[in-house]
């Protein structure tokens, strides 16, 4: 009887068919899953090194044993092969390649364009709005800190356009000296444009030029006997000089990243120090999944190629190790960025000090992660014993509900794995169509939306599902899973203790008809409490954002015929929305552009 098993992959025979040209090779297993992507200057020689060597490292031998087929793509140059390899790794996420696990785009400071009174704002995502973007910054904190400095130094507005257009009097930012109130015309367009230009110069690294201009303006104001303006400019110059002294880094080039790597106990940390315009923007640590050949130089090479694939590249990269094919990598980055890029690993003076700083930071972060991983491993193993699971869970999800007296309900779903929170998998659900305050209905809706995809064969299924609540909430979860036909999930309710004290929580297993009281010393309860608290935090923050967004929206925006100008005229005439609500139809008609029909629609919208 013929066998349905496909023949084993003959690597030696396949190598004989290969070209000696540069290109990219891809290994797949019997199920069609991509195992590995690599590039080669000589495909026959490089792929042959996997199949013709008598002895291979255990990790590589384990991968070779799974290969069922190999695909190649021939390129014109080795540089093209390097670029294609980086693109494929980032998009396809092969099992045995380095993976950065950094899906979040980097934050920028955005200066809007095409407006009389531009605004500065935090921005993350596609840069498709008119205006100018400064960055990228390594963290949200760095952007917020810079925006705070901009408010103090140049007083350029940062409020949303909808808020700006509907002001009838200055807000708190004006009263504390952080805005010049362009919304109500307390600053001329010319003076505001000057503030914007100085802010733009400062963010672009031209702080010295800003100081020189302000110093000249200060002298002119003093000569013209405008001592109040001269004093304000003097204080601004002094603040700028102090800031320049604090943030300028001696020895840093205009644009430079310093990158160091440490590998230990199967984990790797890559630490990056960012310098832009001679100013330190801070650091960021990455914990990539290790590739097959886990050497620091190879890891750094793959990191640099992937990391700068779709990000701005500085003119200088200081690296902790000599990279293989370093010149080719520099050429690829230069082609992509449109300017020369230098990769340096043998440095002296201040650059050597920066590199030592990055290396110490990488080692400290790696040590901390290893300790945290060990603690998490203990907690996961203890949870396995407590719940009597066949093996430690690989994925834990927790749901929570947040609302204010039943309004604007938000459900959260957070995900934890053996290495901690997996924030890229977090989800929020805006709940609608239920009786306000019905937490059971809210939980039912959120769980249905989450697990409908699992029932359709999409998305990952958790091993343990935590529900912040008692038996009623757990029953909702079990009902949803039964309706959708999703099995194999251990559902656990997390109920607070009698005095609501930490460590006295009760774990409720409705389907098993039992309750567990682990006690405050239980590592498993520490894990459950951490996941529950994170879910609670994520739900509350989502609810607050939804509530703030609802408050920012004016009721007038929903009235047909009331655009931005008429809305601003109404608010200015009556001193705010409360004044508009108190006005009658005849009073509303006195506002320019509002006839009786529109006045009646406005009155009706405000009074139900």
Description:
It is a single chain. The protein is an alpha+beta fold. The chain has helices at residues 11-16, 43-51, 58-64, 78-92, 140-153, 161-165, 172-175, 189-203, 207-223, 227-247, 296-307, 326-337, 349-387, 439-455, 471-484, 523-552, 564-574, 577-582, 585-589, 596-606, and strands at residues 23-28, 34-40, 69-74, 107-112, 120-124, 131-134, 255-264, 267-276, 279-286, 316-319, 342-344, 396-404, 407-417, 420-421, 427-430, 464-468, 490-495, 506-509, 514-516. Helix content is 44%, strand content 19%. The longest helix is centred in the middle third of the chain and has 39 residues, at 349-387. It is globular. Residues 258-481 form the UvrC family homology region profile domain. Residues 20-98 form the GIY-YIG domain.
- Tell me the β content: 15-25%
Q: What does the largest sheet look like?
A: 8 strands, mixed
**Rg over alpha carbons:** 30 Å
Give the strand tally.
19
Organism: Rhodanobacter geophilus
InterPro entries: GIY-YIG_endonuc, GIY-YIG_endonuc_sf, GIY-YIG_UvrC_Cho, RuvA_2-like, UVR_dom, UVR_dom_sf, UvrABC_protein_C, UvrC
Function: The UvrABC repair system catalyzes the recognition and processing of DNA lesions. UvrC both incises the 5' and 3' sides of the lesion. The N-terminal half is responsible for the 3' incision and the C-terminal half is responsible for the 5' incision.
Family: Belongs to the UvrC family.
């Amino acid at each position: 009887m013929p066998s349905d098993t496909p023949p084993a992959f003959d690597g030696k025979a396949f190598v004989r068919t290969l070209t000696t040209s540069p290109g990219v090779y891809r290994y797949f297993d019997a199920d069609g899953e991509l195992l590995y992507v690599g590039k080669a200057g000589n495909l026959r020689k490089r792929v042959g090194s996997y199949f013709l060597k008598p002895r291979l490292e255990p990790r590589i031998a384990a991968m070779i044993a799974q290969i069922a087929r190999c695909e190649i793509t021939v390129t014109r140059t080795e540089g093209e092969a390097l670029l294609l390899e980086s693109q494929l790794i980032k998009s396809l996420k092969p099992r045995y390649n380095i993976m950065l696990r950094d899906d979040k785009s980097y934050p920028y400071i955005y200066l809007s364009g095409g407006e009389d009174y531009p605004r500065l704002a935090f921005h993350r995502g596609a840069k498709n709005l008119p205006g100018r973007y400064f960055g990228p910054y390594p963290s949200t904190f760095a952007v917020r800190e810079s925006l705070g400095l901009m408010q103090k130094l140049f007083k350029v507005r940062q409020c949303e356009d909808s808020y700006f257009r509907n002001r009838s009097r200055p807000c708190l930012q004006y009263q504390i000296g952080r805005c010049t109130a362009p919304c109500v015309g307390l600053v001329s367009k010319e003076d505001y444009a000057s503030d914007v230009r100085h802010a733009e110069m400062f963010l672009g690294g031209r702080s010295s030029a800003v100081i020189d201009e302000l110093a000249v303006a200060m002298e002119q104001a003093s000569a013209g006997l405008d001592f109040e303006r001269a004093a304000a400019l003097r204080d601004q110059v002094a603040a700028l000089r102090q800031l320049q002294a604090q943030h300028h880094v001696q020895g840093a080039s205009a644009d430079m990243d310093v990158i160091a790597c440490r590998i230990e106990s199967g984990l790797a940390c890559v630490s990056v120090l960012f310098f832009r315009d001679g100013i330190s923007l801070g650091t960021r640590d990455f914990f990539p999944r290790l590739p097959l050949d886990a050497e620091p130089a190879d890891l750094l090479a793959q990191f640099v190629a992937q990391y700068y694939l779709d990000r701005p590249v500085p003119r200088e990269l200081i690296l902790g190790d000599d990279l293989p094919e370093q010149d080719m990598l520099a050429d690829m980055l230069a082609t992509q960025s449109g300017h020369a890029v230098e990769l340096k690993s043998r440095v002296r003076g201040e650059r050597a000090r920066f590199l030592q700083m990055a290396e110490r930071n990488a080692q400290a972060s790696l040590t901390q992660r290893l300790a945290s991983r060990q603690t998490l491993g203990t907690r996961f193993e203890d949870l396995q014993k407590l719940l009597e699971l066949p093996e430690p869970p690989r994925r834990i999800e927790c749901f929570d509900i947040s609302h204010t007296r039943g309004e604007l309900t938000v459900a959260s779903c957070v995900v934890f794995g053996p290495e901690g929170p997996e924030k890229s998998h977090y989800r929020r659900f805006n709940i609608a169509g239920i009786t306000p305050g019905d937490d059971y209905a809210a939980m039912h809706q959120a769980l249905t939306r989450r697990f409908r995809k699992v029932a359709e064969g999409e998305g990952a299924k958790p091993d343990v599902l935590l529900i912040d609540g008692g038996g009623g909430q757990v029953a909702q979860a079990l009902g949803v899973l039964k309706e959708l036909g999703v099995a194999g999930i251990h559902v656990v309710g997390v109920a607070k203790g009698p005095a609501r004290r930490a460590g006295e929580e009760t774990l409720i297993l409705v389907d098993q008809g039992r309750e567990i009281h682990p006690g405050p010393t239980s590592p498993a309860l520490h894990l459950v409490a951490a996941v529950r608290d994170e879910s609670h935090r994520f739900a509350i923050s989502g609810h607050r954002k939804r509530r703030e967004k609802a408050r920012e929206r004016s009721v007038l925006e929903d009235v047909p015929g009331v655009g931005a100008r008429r809305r601003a005229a109404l608010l200015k005439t009556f001193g705010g929305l409360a004044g508009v609500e108190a006005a009658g139809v005849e009073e509303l008609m006195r506002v320019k552009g509002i006839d009786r029909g529109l006045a009646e629609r406005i009155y009706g919208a405000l009074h139900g």
